Amino acid sequence: MTDGPLPVYRIATIPGDGVGPDVVGAARRVLEGAATAFGFGFDWFEITAGGIGIDTYGVAIRAEDVAAAGTADAILLGAVGGPRWDDPNAAVRPEQALFALRGGLELFANLRPVTVHPALVPSSPLRPELLDGVDLLIVRELTSGLYFGRPSEERRTADGRVAVDTLWYTEAEIRRVVRLAFELARGRRGKLTSVDKANVLATSRLWRKVVEEERPAFPEVEVGHQLVDSCAMLLVRQPAAFDVLVTENLFGDILSDEASVLAGSLGMLPSASLGERRTAHGRFGLYEPIHGSAPDIAGRDLANPLATILSAAMLLRWSLGQEPAARAIEGAVGATLDDGYRTRDLVPAATDAGGLRVVGTAGMTDAVIERLGRGSAGQRPSDRDAGSSSSSADDEAIATIVVADTLLGLP
Ligand code: IPM
Ligand code: MG
Fold first, then answer.
1. N or C: which end of the chain has fewer CB within 10 A?
2. Which positions are annotated as active-site residues?
């Protein structure tokens, strides 16, 4: 087909703890299937991090392993944490691996897309009519804010114990993530909602100023500011009104778990963490499911691999420039769900599984791989070319957003 050797991409896997190895193994098999179908190859290397890093090396991740991960074309991560390392007061904790990778590799933008596959509508606790047309993208700032601000500590004082965390943002940290969100909105339905708490926080007021300063460079994007508390409410009342949301680290953490309920299960949501650095093939990034390590079902062929498989599709798109392969995976996941395949977490509690094929991690992965070559590419549920112009319900919700801000006297 082509002259010259096939491209070979170097991928670091960080399986981590709990179901991490189950789902990373599954996604790796799907990536190999896509590589065969689309004519490229992978060179894998594995990094030990998380709770298993603590057991092996005494730290969640070694500095040299962060550096090694940075030499890959992309990183595929499972999950970290578990009951063995659960003491929040311990000096060494599995989550530190995430912060070392995010901060150390400057992966400042965390993309969390939320779409609802029609077959999974019954799996969500929300009324079906609310889920119609849901296709949103949360862009969470990932390397600053309360997660990284110093001091962050407990102190003993004459008045008893005091604890402090620091919410800190520089203008540059806000600007780079806001710009990326504008660009993403421009490539989608052209709506950007910036989420803050500008009626209380100085960092939020700076955030809002920076968004306004960037606005003229993106005249085709319609921008709204939304306070985080009312945003949390609108995410379940009118989720289809949102396109791209951009917000600071902690708000994004909370809102993305809330938004996952729309998709039917936490086991469906992928994520990409990106920085500014480019490799020869695309943007360097780290890809992981947003669910945790679920230690109770680890190693038992029960974990839903779809969030990690969809993260692998994002990896192909963003870091390797393999858009057709990414779409093929997303199409295959959609076809697998259409054909009735479900892991346990996707079977609605109130229904019996009649008509559905309840499978484990391996069965679901096999079903996706089988459908990879069947030309289902381009049918992903989130396809925004499929005539999804804004409805009057969307306009109403945006109007509500504007009214809420006006009432508060905010710019
Ligand atoms: C996430 C997780 C992490 C976070 C935890 C595990 C530290 O909740 O990626 O959303 O808070 O960032
Ligand atoms: Mg979280």
1. N
2. 147, 197, 229, 253, 257
